[in-house]
Amino acid sequence: MELHLQIIGTLFIALAFVHLIFPKYFNWEKELQSLSLMNREMMRVHTIFIALTVFLMGLLCLTSPHELTEAGLGKKITLGLAVFWTTRLFIQFFGYSSELWKGKAFETVIHIIFSLFWIYVSALFWIIYFSK
Predict the structure, then answer these.
(1) Which terminus of the chain faces fewer neighbouring Cβ atoms within 10 Å, N or C?
(2) Angle of the 105-130 helix axis to the 2-18 helix axis, nearest 10
């Protein structure tokens, strides 16, 4: 389990850094122009905090896998991570329209990869939480 947590931790840290390219990749300069200043700023600020949260989760998994598998606080943190990432898994299917990826090769591949990743992450945290 500890190796899996370290793998996930490394992938979370990479995912956090991927957030840095979002503004340019998604052309936020142009795309967000029609939004109010508050909504534009909220998109940027929330993206930074999502990246920071994912980075810190990654750091926790990478540096403290043994503690996360232990009874007490580690199990409580693992439960929180299981709920968080299971919710993210459901958002993958029910929060985003399939129009974003259906019929588009690259987007479909990304959708499948992230769906499998969220399943892996969610399952791992639930398994750790329910293990003795």
Answers:
(1) C
(2) 140
Locate tokens 């990826």: which residue?
101
Residue 122: both structure tokens together: 């969610």
End-to-end CA distance of the chain: 12
For residue range 82-111, what is the model confidence (pLDDT) as tens digits?
A: 999 999 999 999 999 999 999 999 999 999
| CA–CA distance, 14 with 56 (Å, rounded to integer) | 11
Mean pLDDT, rounded, of the chain = 96
- What's residue 54's pLDDT? 98
**Non-local CB neighbours of 30 within 8 Å, separated by 6+ positions:** none
- DSSP labels for 25-70? HTTHHHHTTTS-HHHHHHHHHHHHHHHHHHHHHHHHHHH-HHHHHS
